[in-house]
Amino acid sequence: MKKLINNASEVVNEMLDGMVLSHPNELRRLDGTTVLVRKDAPVQGKPAIISGGGSGHEPAHAGFVGRGMLDAAVSGEVFTSPTPDQVFEAVKAVDGGSGVFLVIKNYTGDVMNFEMAAEMAEAEGIDVKYVVVNDDVAVEDSSFTSGRRGIAGTVLVHKILGAMAEEGASLGEIAEEAEKLVKDIKSMGMSLTPCIVPEAGKPGFTLADDEMEIGTGIHGEPGVERTGLLSADETAAALLEKIEQDMKLEPDMDVLLLINGLGATPLMEQYIISRAVHHLLKDKGVKVTETIVGEWMTSLEMAGVSVTLLKMNEDRQRWIAAAADTTAFKR
Amino acid sequence: MKKLINNASEVVNEMLDGMVLSHPNELRRLDGTTVLVRKDAPVQGKPAIISGGGSGHEPAHAGFVGRGMLDAAVSGEVFTSPTPDQVFEAVKAVDGGSGVFLVIKNYTGDVMNFEMAAEMAEAEGIDVKYVVVNDDVAVEDSSFTSGRRGIAGTVLVHKILGAMAEEGASLGEIAEEAEKLVKDIKSMGMSLTPCIVPEAGKPGFTLADDEMEIGTGIHGEPGVERTGLLSADETAAALLEKIEQDMKLEPDMDVLLLINGLGATPLMEQYIISRAVHHLLKDKGVKVTETIVGEWMTSLEMAGVSVTLLKMNEDRQRWIAAAADTTAFKR
Amino acid sequence: MNQQDAVNWILSFQKKIESSKEYLTDLDQAVGDGDHGINMNRGLQHAAGVLHEKTFETPGDVLKAVSTAFISKVGGASGPLYGSAMLKASGSCGGKETLEDEDVKAMLRAAADAVQARGRAERGEKTMYDVWEAVVRAAEEKEDIDWQHVRMKTAEAADATKEMQAKKGRAAYLGARSIGHLDPGSVSTRMLIESLAEVLESGDS
Amino acid sequence: MNQQDAVNWILSFQKKIESSKEYLTDLDQAVGDGDHGINMNRGLQHAAGVLHEKTFETPGDVLKAVSTAFISKVGGASGPLYGSAMLKASGSCGGKETLEDEDVKAMLRAAADAVQARGRAERGEKTMYDVWEAVVRAAEEKEDIDWQHVRMKTAEAADATKEMQAKKGRAAYLGARSIGHLDPGSVSTRMLIESLAEVLESGDS
Lengths: 331, 331, 205, 205
Ligand SMILES: Nc1ncnc2c1ncn2[C@@H]1O[C@H](COP(=O)(O)OP(=O)(O)O)[C@@H](O)[C@H]1O
Ligand SMILES: Nc1ncnc2c1ncn2[C@@H]1O[C@H](COP(=O)(O)OP(=O)(O)O)[C@@H](O)[C@H]1O
Ligand SMILES: [Mg+2]
Ligand SMILES: [Mg+2]
Ligand SMILES: [Mg+2]
Ligand SMILES: [Mg+2]
Description:
The complex is a heterotetramer, with two copies of chain A and two copies of chain C.
Chain A: H1 11-22, E1 27-29, E2 35-38, E3 48-55, E4 66-67, E5 72-78, H2 84-94, E6 100-105, H3 108-123, E7 128-133, H4 154-167, H5 171-183, E8 185-191, E9 211-214, E10 225-228, H6 232-244, E11 254-261, H7 267-283, E12 287-294, E13 304-311, H8 314-321, E14 325-326
Parallel strand pairs in A: 3-5, 3-6, 6-7, 11-12
Antiparallel strand pairs in A: 1-2, 2-5, 4-14, 8-9, 8-13, 9-10, 11-13
Chain C: H1 3-31, H2 36-53, H3 59-73, H4 78-93, H5 101-119, H6 128-141, H7 147-160, H8 184-204
The site of one magnesium ion (MG) has 6 residues of chain D, from loops.
């Protein structure tokens, strides 16, 4: 295992330390926790937005803490949901009297731990609402299963809800838009190489030189399907086709396109994928009003990308364009 | 070779296409060239700043085109300096009457091709000045050799000269600061894994599981020295020690710290390195006035980092903090 | 089952998990994210520390402390699941100093119900609930718990997860590819029950 | 040497490079960035295309076109170096339709000088200039160029780069680690001269 670390069991702690040392005017760490908050938290008079989850997805989530996005991020161990008490600490630290909104990615662990924290907060009289993001279309949706994962599209939820909160929306309005929003975000990912959880010390799966995984999540888990190597254009088409099974792409529809690198895929390749998706969408008459390309929700050093589409409207256009001042995403 | 590409000889062309499709309001491609310019180029009344070099370093350089940084970026083939005629096209397209400044990284190829372009531009009566960035302390400096490479520190040159140009500095003033600036920027890099040039199809060197290269550049070239695996703290100390041989670190000195990922090193590890460097600098009484962490000048999918220090003063503080609106770096 | 039995139960479980950490991680790499052994070990290290440091009056107290360790140190899916199981198990013990077989059955049922409620799990979904459900059924079959029988049924239930397609938890994302792999949480739950059987069998003899 | 010889020279060189592309890339991976074969091949593909399409009056015209291909299609270090060499070589040929041995010597010297000037290179720095310098010396030794001798000296000079420590170009960044590897540009330059020798030897016979 080749990693620039000191001690596999200290990676999250040292990373958070490093973030605060690097951005002392932007971020503050709650003592004895894995919670990073905006330096000026709690901000009075606006609902606070909290996200979090396992570590290893950097810049998600702590990189999105700042004006216009998150008030706090809670980091668990690598690929492991944080515990309810950590989330609860975050809730208490950022509540500015207008309530707290939790952005949860749909994993059993995240949902259970965040729900437990919400119960704890409610018991203390803090107004908490949440949304469960499940943008990953790789898995069939069904009421009999845990449903779909939350992946890169979650970053768009941070951006939009963060902008709403700055703009003066109430907790209830945020919760309402959040429910609509998650229905309008669809993502699909793939990977060329696995990644290594520091404490595990070995890759989560192996892939031959001529194989790739389609439908990979962001936790080094195997994908839904293994195929031979596809070209960038073929890969883009495969991902988009799967998204289309769930989101009807109609002429004159407006979408935001998010290309997300999983950690080891050069930006060059991400733009080659973006090019392919743009061509495909153009053929369908779909208008891309905004494209965001980069590493936003990674899976350590996994090579791969995901493609996310978000249905746009006037409000969302404004919220996406609104100012954001975080260490990883600025507008 | 596992890459999300279509055709190894088309990667640069398709990447540039992808960038323009993704950022149509920010970037424009000069027809038939590999030059991306600010959408609003040429900007009248300010010197234009151009950078460029081989591709494979994304977001460098095209990601830094925009207000407050570069007016144009010229992309060569992967790890291959662009040709003089391409650079010359860029010069003609962005000259707004106040002259053009070229930021060249110190590689034989880059220097020769850009110098030839400067000669062509001067022959047409365009005022062109340039600086050669050589921040990499891995290699001994000597007047009998081609000297030191330009690596991640180049991004700081873009930022500062770009801010000066927006602020109203003349071409001469920019050239003067540029000369001082490059003497005050020192970088040192290392790598854990090599990278694969698409057209070559195989890694530039091989490293055993327990080896790393110290003093690696950004072109998949082997480093200056091969060692056993070091921890993050040891790695940071080794890089800083080498920088210190060249830049005296004194108490109460102000520096900017740039941590640059080479392509496949998770942000988590970059922050662990940042933490270590912060601790070491604190012990020396050196004040870090600004820390920038991320992938700015990569080497395709190489795993590794470089550490850059820039001596700060009041002017530079202002230039670094000044607004910048590019696709990869925003302030 | 007295408080010492409860302590021994958890300490025995801790040792099993510690020595199976890599095995559980391998299982979780096949169908999940490869951290189940790490997660369980982290929680149990902490729990063992607490059990060594403090003294407890009742089995319920012991399980309460273990529950806290799971809820506050583990995270992931297994943290709340084991944590809730232990919390409800503790609640079912009430203030009793010694548990009779009836109480042990009630405790196991409380734990199983907690896992089901927290995980919204049903039988056959390839989760640890499959094992819990089998444990409760086996324990309740005879008036005096037949630990040999419970062990057998627990093992069967854990093994049976191999051929199931997962419907809950990360393994569900793999769809049909989840078939052919043991469920890691079921295997660790089996270890928990084996430790309990060891402690209570030896107490009987 | 007439214009057809010049065309044959470059076409022969192009074939050599095409079939040695991987070899040159391997050499460049050891001490540089692994693109020398790719760079040279790209330039010569383009040059060959131009030579097939257009017709030329003089060797100077041919070399001018080749120079443009290198300067505008190659980039890197080899683009301007080969480009400048060809440009100055072309200049030295002037408008002559046929070059005598004297003219060929002058052409080689012009090319060598251009490489030296563009690269600010000196002998012994482990660059293609080492080969150019040896070529010029060997060509000038006899009044009628002894191509067998030139070939030998060229080969020697290219081989000698192996034991040198690089002072210019990317290999210089490796310091002492550059020792023990052939310089890729020197090897390609040797191929250029071999092609020239083949064409002019056969022209003599
Ligand atoms: N909804 C659920 N209900 C019951 N058990 C579950 C559920 N989801 C997951 N599990 C159990 O949790 C185990 C995984 O635990 P662990 O790997 O520690 O957490 P994570 O999945 O968050 O990485 C699974 O093997 C399964 O037995
Ligand atoms: N300053 C220089 N003077 C002369 N030749 C040089 C110089 N720098 C590099 N070269 C030659 O260029 C060759 C490398 O060419 P190439 O790999 O195509 O370009 P790059 O180094 O830009 O990748 C070297 O092997 C060497 O012979
Ligand atoms: Mg996990
Ligand atoms: Mg090159
Ligand atoms: Mg797991
Ligand atoms: Mg090269």
